[in-house]
């Protein structure tokens, strides 16, 4: 598996394709909620397996978001590979602490990577979330 920071048309389209498949198709989130103004100023990541896009994530300032892996590639370390790449890029950018809003069911995954949940459960796109953070 390889990670790229999306900086051309193909890799950006691959990034948005993954997010569309996971969040819009699978989780039925409206596209107007999925794609927002942060996309213009974010670092976008794409995870490839044999040149096939299978995962995506974005980094906006110190906020990790839109972490997505295609269903048939989950539980194969794809999410871990994505998050390590995001963390390395954040360090390169001088970011000291990362934050993310985790869908409630995936909190144990982020905890296994060293993130700590804080605050109350909240709804985002009608899905329960909780804030998490990690010092780099």
Which SSEs are present, and which pair or pack?
Blueprint: E1 2-5, H1 9-26, H2 31-34, E2 43-49, E3 52-60, E4 63-69, H3 78-92, E5 97-103, H4 107-112, E6 116-124, E7 127-135
Parallel strand pairs: 4-5
Antiparallel strand pairs: 1-2, 2-3, 3-4, 5-7, 6-7
Describe this structure in words.
- The chain is built from 4 helices and 7 strands; from the N terminus they run E-H-H-E-E-E-H-E-H-E-E.
- With 136 residues, it is of the alpha+beta class.
- It has helices spanning 9-26, 31-34, 78-92, 107-112, and strands spanning 2-5, 43-49, 52-60, 63-69, 97-103, 116-124, 127-135.
- A 7-stranded mixed β-sheet has the order 1-2-3-4-5-7-6, with helices on both faces.
- The chain has one domain (2-135): Aminopeptidase (3-Layer(aba) Sandwich).
Widest sheet: strand ordering: 1-2-3-4-5-7-6
Which structural category fits the helices and strands?
A: alpha+beta
Mean pLDDT value? 94
* SS strand fraction: 35-45%
Which residues form runs of ≥5 with pLDDT under 50?
none
């Amino acid at each position: 598996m390889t990670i790229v920071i999306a900086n051309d048309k193909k890799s950006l389209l691959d990034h948005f394709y993954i997010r569309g498949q996971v969040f819009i198709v699978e989780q039925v989130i409206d596209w107007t909620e999925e794609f927002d103004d942060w996309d213009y100023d974010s670092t976008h990541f794409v995870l490839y397996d044999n040149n096939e896009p299978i995962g995506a994530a974005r980094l906006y300032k110190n906020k990790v978001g839109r972490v997505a892996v295609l269903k048939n590639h989950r539980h194969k370390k794809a999410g871990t590979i994505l998050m390590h790449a995001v963390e390395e890029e954040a360090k390169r950018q001088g970011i000291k602490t990362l934050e993310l809003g985790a869908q409630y069911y995936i909190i144990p995954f982020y905890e296994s990577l060293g993130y700590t949940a804080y605050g109350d459960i909240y709804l985002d796109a009608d899905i329960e979330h909780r804030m998490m953070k990690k010092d780099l």
